[in-house]
Design goal:
The protein is about 55% helix and about 15% strand. The longest helix is centred in the last third of the chain and has 53 residues. By secondary structure, the protein is of the alpha/beta class.
Length: about 400
């Protein structure tokens, strides 16, 4: 990977020329010629007037094919506190890795070029890092106090993704992919060589490895206005994110997620995550197989509706008990009644969905409905119910009281 750097300098009313910045704010861009100049000028003006720490803006262009690089060079030439970095290969993670690795700042940060996040959140973002309270700070659109303007589709995708993360890793942070983050530079240098993704999953992998190794992640609620011209390809990105989750879970579960942080290590590093994910998945798969087997076994005696009710109820009871004890490690009476009640409500919904599926297949096929078609109907409907259960078990059914 080759890189070209243009411009140099640090911005601050009190800063001397060529002084290393406290905060280096990276703006990764790919084919953003339409908004780059206006956004950087707006960010530059805000930092000059309202930001108390020495700062630098680094425009990290990752293989743009329009006029983005030319615009970045012009901004770096005109503004002494702006640096332009060009990479030959695409990838937001790759751009951040290159810019952060080369920075001489005490804190490295980044924000999306559309400036969707309100800039007033920048100081609360970096202050815990400058003070040494936290190791990583992230803007959160899901934290209490955040004000978010975005479409229903993106809101649903974001919440589903973050609930899947919590179901898999039990992480404490709530918004993995908000384009507004900051990291202490020494922490970044320790984590960057361990991060394998160079695209959109880069953020999530950074946070998961940090939390897995006991580093402190602070969240700042942000004001966010979604960019309707976003270049993110939802399906492709979601697929890669799921692959990344499985890869990191396997890495942590097998004990390869530990990083030698040296003096950065904190004594409260949690036990390895990922094992809970394996137990969760194993119990889920076994429950599904048992449900289908029981349905087929009981169908000739009790009919489709009766077999479905008995099979589903039996497997849900065992599934809930195993998850409570094995996956979530809960013992004793504390929260037991609440967990069983909520699991029962999920079961009622699953029973309604699978019963409706049987009714519809009978309505279409009539008296000629075969066992195979009934089985396909309940498996499809049960899959939808299982997806809801995967999301809600860790975040609602077994979620401890605050």
């Amino acid at each position: 990977m080759s890189a070209v750097v243009v411009g140099s300098g640090v911005g601050s009313g009190a800063a001397a020329p060529n002084t290393a910045p406290i905060v280096d704010i990276v703006v990764p861009v790919y084919n953003e010629v339409a908004i780059l100049e206006a956004s950087v000028i707006r960010l530059h003006a805000y930092l000059r007037e309202a930001f108390p720490f020495r700062w630098r803006i680094t425009i990290a262009d990752n293989a743009s094919t329009d006029g983005t690089w030319a615009t970045a060079q012009t901004l770096a030439a005109v503004l002494s506190d702006v640096v332009a970095l060009h990479l030959d290969d695409k990838g937001r993670g790759r751009a951040l890795r290159a810019a952060w690795s080369a920075s001489d700042a005490a804190v490295v940060a980044y924000m999306d070029v559309d400036l969707s996040t309100g800039l007033d959140a920048l100081l609360p973002l970096v202050a815990p890092l400058v003070s040494g309270h936290s190791d990583i700070a992230i803007g959160s659109r899901l934290a209490s106090g955040a004000i978010v303007v975005r479409g229903t589709k993106r809101e649903l995708i974001s919440r589903t993704y973050n609930r899947l993360l919590q179901a898999t890793f039990g992480n404490g942070f709530r918004d993995a992919q908000c384009g507004f983050k900051a990291v202490r530079a020494d922490v970044a240098r320790a984590l960057l060589p361990e991060i394998q993704d160079d695209a959109w999953f880069f953020d999530t992998e950074l946070l998961l490895l940090a939390e897995h190794n006991g580093l402190r992640v602070s969240e700042v609620p942000v004001d966010w206005v979604d960019d309707p011209d976003s270049r993110v390809h939802v399906v492709a990105t979601a697929t890669e994110d799921l692959k990344g989750m499985l890869r990191v879970a396997r890495r942590c579960w097998t004990g390869h997620g530990r990083i030698d942080l040296g003096p950065l290590a904190r004594p409260e590093a949690p036990p390895a995550t990922g094992g809970a994910f394996v137990r969760f998945a194993t119990i889920g798969v076994a429950s599904t197989i048992a449900y289908v087997a029981l349905f087929l076994l009981l169908r000739m005696t009790y009919g489709g509706y009766g077999a479905n009710a008995i099979a589903l109820t039996s497997t849900v009871v065992v599934n809930t008990a195993l998850h409570r004890r094995s996956t979530f490690g809960l013992r004793g009476p504390d929260g037991r009644s609440r967990a069983w009640l909520r699991s029962g409500l999920l079961h009622a919904g699953a029973l309604a969905v699978t019963t409706l599926a049987l009714f519809l297949v009978h309505a279409v096929e009539g008296p000629d409905t075969t066992v195979t078609k009934e089985a396909v109907a309940v498996i499809a409907a049960g899959g939808l119910a299982s997806a809801a259960r995967v999301l809600l078990l860790p975040t609602w059914v077994f979620r401890p009281r605050r």
